[in-house]
Amino acid sequence: MRQPTAGIHHITAFAQDAQGTVDFYAGVLGLRLVKKTINFDAPEVYHLYFGNEVGKPGTIITFFPWAGSRKGRIGGGQVGITTYVVPPNSLGFWHKRLQQFQVDVTETERFGEKYLQFQDTEGLQLEIVEREDGENSNWSFGGVSPNKAIKGFGGAILYSTAPEKTGHTLEQVMGLTKVREEDSYIRYQATGDIGNIIDIDTAVTYAGVGGAGTVHHIAWRAKTDEEQEQWREHVQSNEFRPTSIIDRQYFHAIYFREHGEILFEIATDPPGFANDEEAEHLGEKLMLPAWFEQYRRGIENGLPDIEVRALEEDSE
Question: In what residue span(s) does the VOC domain sit (predicted)?
Fold first, then answer.
């Protein structure tokens, strides 16, 4: 591949409670709801995007919240832990804030870095780490100011059913570099300044089950539509079976499942989330692609009401 990926574009997960998801990621973590739309393949389900002030690639976590859906089990074939990165000297702030919201926190260390590990309200596994790299977010909400705010992804820990094969794909297909090994972890690094550190935990031996509280897929960055075409050819030449290029309104995507059973997506940086609404009003109303507009009333009636709101703990 002529141009390796810069790192993670976005991560998409399943949930059950739409308002609970908004409260946690906007209210607790202070991310911006940058897009409120639907699952294009299941329009009765929201697709919610959270990121920095503009939803820059490398900052975006997305959710399909579906009330009554089955609970998943985190394991092999999934992203096991999603890593967020914050500015230096802000880990203490985040520890205190998470405890303020009654979130159980575990302190741990890996490759010489300190992490705060915790779960969201659905059981999705998350962690926060401090790093210099990456620009600060300009978004402020609740009790989170820009100098403490989450910059975006630090990376992720992958749970693979075949760690050696997943590592080979990261290096030989996606263009990451293997940099270190420690205990059960193997670390790989992409070229970007956020969403660029990927660890494989080789100790995970049990299979995951998709459902609420688990990651559906991890998406990697392609700079342009032209590069996306090259990526598809490259993936296919490595004996994977990528989908055709799919229009996701805010990026174009291909998908393939690597040999450790993790679903990979490659998504283009453009056109971005201001594609269909002004940047200052991102996430304020339900946005539908043109082919669903004729069904707007029925779609809106079938979706639960949600709102971005400051939580009580921030007023204490």
Answer: 7-131, 152-269
pTM of the model: 0.97
Q: How far apart, in whole angstroms, are the C-alpha atoms of residue 117 and residue 106?
A: 5
Give the integer Cα–Cα distance in Å for 302 and 43: 9
pLDDT in tens, 55-108: 999 999 999 999 999 999 999 999 999 999 999 999 999 999 999 999 999 999
- Residue spans of the domains in the chain: they are 8-315
Rg (CA), the chain: 18
Q: State which CATH number among 3.30.70.560, 3.10.180.10, 3.50.50.60, 3.20.20.70 fits the domain covering 8-315.
A: 3.10.180.10
φ, ψ at 172 (rounded to 5°): -85, -25
The number of angstroms, rounded, from the C-alpha of 274 to the middle of its chain's C-alpha atoms is 19
Yes or no: say if 236 and 213 are a contact pair by the CB < 8 Å rule.
no
Angstrom distance (rounded) from CA 211 to CA 189: 29
